[in-house]
Each structure stands twice: as structure tokens, then as C-alpha cells.
Amino acid sequence: HAASLAITKSLGKLYNPLFVYGGVGLGKTHLLQAIGNRISSTYKDSKVLYISAEKLTADLLESIRTRTIDDLKSTYAKLDLLIIDDVQFIAGKEKTQEIVFSIFNELHGKNKQIILSSDRPPKAIPALEERLRSRFEGGMIADIGAPDFETRLAILKLKMLERKTDFNNEILTYIATNI
């Protein structure tokens, strides 16, 4: 959270790239989209792209097929913030990794912000080229883990206040323990 806020205040200067990883359902995508939304609303002229790795791969394949890869690279080179969600899906895709490497270097060289997410840290992504792994590990790596019991209970109490509802502690404890 602190790294995300710092990025929104100093785009491209801190934690670049930011690599967020964790299990399914822990909020990685929501966090990435929140950063993108904050940048878009704070810096009205900024060019922000949020894209899933699967969509990125499909777009790259289409640009290769239509021989417009240079146009695609040029479009990406104009971004202020590139967010790639579920980057583990490019592993093993040589041409995609080659182009992502090129785009990454172009943006990073211009101090443009890059944010990536995955279900595991870069070192644990099989078939990821070493040069990409090295780039992904070059900034901040943040592990998003499941909250502990006390945190889950505090979240439930906060949600209860926000929604002006009331449940007794037994119910809240049951939910925090089992869900």
C-alpha cells in the first residue's frame, strides 16, 4: 500500500518496476487498477495502460500477423504508466518475451513507471527469460499475502461500520475464522 501511494506521488522515480505477487483473490488486480485510476485522475494528461498478459500476448501476435509490430511498440513507448497483470502468462512465449523486454527497456530508460503482477515472484516463474527476470526484480517486489485473523476481524468491523450494520462478536469471529 505504501509503495503504491509513493508511486502515485512520484511516477517513475520510486519502485520502478513494482512487481506485486500473491495468490488468487488477494486483491492484486484491484491494487493495480487503483494505482492506474489514481494516476489517471491526478495527472490528467498521463497515458496509462492496464492490460492482462494474455491480452498483451494476443495483441502482439496480431501485430506480428499484420506486420504492425513497430506501430504497437511506438504506442507503448508513449505511455507514462504500463501495468501488466498476470505476467506469468508470458513465460515460455519467446517472441512475446522478446517484445516485452524491448518495451520494458524503452519505458524504463525514460523513467516511465512499470507495474507487474503475478501469482508468484519472478524467480519462481518457469520458462521466464533470465534477462526479463532480472528486469522484473530490478525494483520493488511485494508479496501480497492473506491477512491474519486479527486483520480479517478488523476489516469486518470496518465494513460493518461503513454499511451501518451490526453483528455480534461471535458472528464476526466465525466469519473471520472460516472465510
Protein described:
The protein is an alpha/beta fold. The chain is 51% helix and 15% strand. The protein contains 8 helices and 5 strands, in the order αβαβααβαβαβαα. The protein has helices spanning 2-9, 28-42, 53-65, 69-77, 94-109, 130-136, 149-162, 169-178; strands at residues 18-22, 48-52, 81-85, 113-118, 140-144. A 5-stranded parallel β-sheet has the order 2-3-4-1-5, sandwiched between helices. Strand 3 (81-85), helix 5 (94-109) and strand 4 (113-118) form a beta-alpha-beta unit. Helix 1 packs parallel to helix 2. The longest helix is centred in the middle third of the chain and has 16 residues, at 94-109. The two termini are 23 Å apart.
Distance between the termini: 23 Å
**Element order, helices and strands?**
HEHEHHEHEHEHH
Structural category is alpha/beta
Count of helical segments? 8
Low-confidence stretches: none
Number of strands: 5
Computed over alpha carbons, the radius of gyration is 19 Å
Largest sheet: 5 strands, parallel
What spatial order of strands do you see in the largest sheet? Answer: 2-3-4-1-5
Shape: elongated
Mean pLDDT across every amino acid position: 93
Percentage beta strand: 5-15%
Helix content: 40-55%
Give a nutshell description of this structure.
The chain is 51% helix and 15% strand.
Keywords:
179 residues; alpha/beta; 5-stranded parallel beta sheet; 8 helices; 15% strand
Topology:
Layout: H1 2-9, E1 18-22, H2 28-42, E2 48-52, H3 53-65, H4 69-77, E3 81-85, H5 94-109, E4 113-118, H6 130-136, E5 140-144, H7 149-162, H8 169-178
Parallel strand pairs: 1-4, 1-5, 2-3, 3-4
Helix pairs in contact: 1-2, 3-4, 7-8
